[in-house]
Amino acid sequence: MPSYPVNHNLYIPLWNKYKPVLLKLMRGATEAPQEYQFIPHEFRDINPKERGGHAFKLEAHKRRPQNNIKMSVVAQDLLDILIKSNTAYELMEEAMYEFVMDKQFKLTVTRHEVTNEEEETVSNQQEEKSPETETEENA
């Protein structure tokens, strides 16, 4: 069974179009949170009946989401574009990035420094949620 909803990849072309903007926002977030106002019709034209709307929050570090994005195809597709970018990969290795898009289609990108202690906690949480563990819990 796929882990993504059936309509996964709908937003890939749109995020790919804005990849240079996303990378610029990520670099700029070193100084302060960055904002970008998207044009609503670009998202609505792709999927006007997006369940739960187009707003989302994605926290990403080391190519992995740090929060649950299973219900947001928009966030899943954004992460997919980011993990395929060498620049975004390097930036996400250094710090955690938070991407928040509100109902008015304003994207805010914030960089959060990750201490060694936090990194260990994240690694431990990922190990705890490994497929073997989930299988055991569901059995």
Task: List the main descriptive attributes of the protein structure presented here.
disordered C terminus; disordered N terminus; five-stranded antiparallel β-sheet; alpha+beta; 139 residues
Describe the structure.
There is one protein chain. The protein has 139 residues and is α+β, with helices and mostly antiparallel strands. The chain has one domain. It has seven helices and five strands, in the order H-H-E-H-E-E-H-H-E-E-H-H. It has a five-stranded antiparallel β-sheet. A hairpin with a 4-residue loop joins strand 4 and strand 5. The longest helix has 13 residues. The radius of gyration is 16 Å and the shape is globular. The chain starts with 11 loop residues before the first helix and ends with a helix.
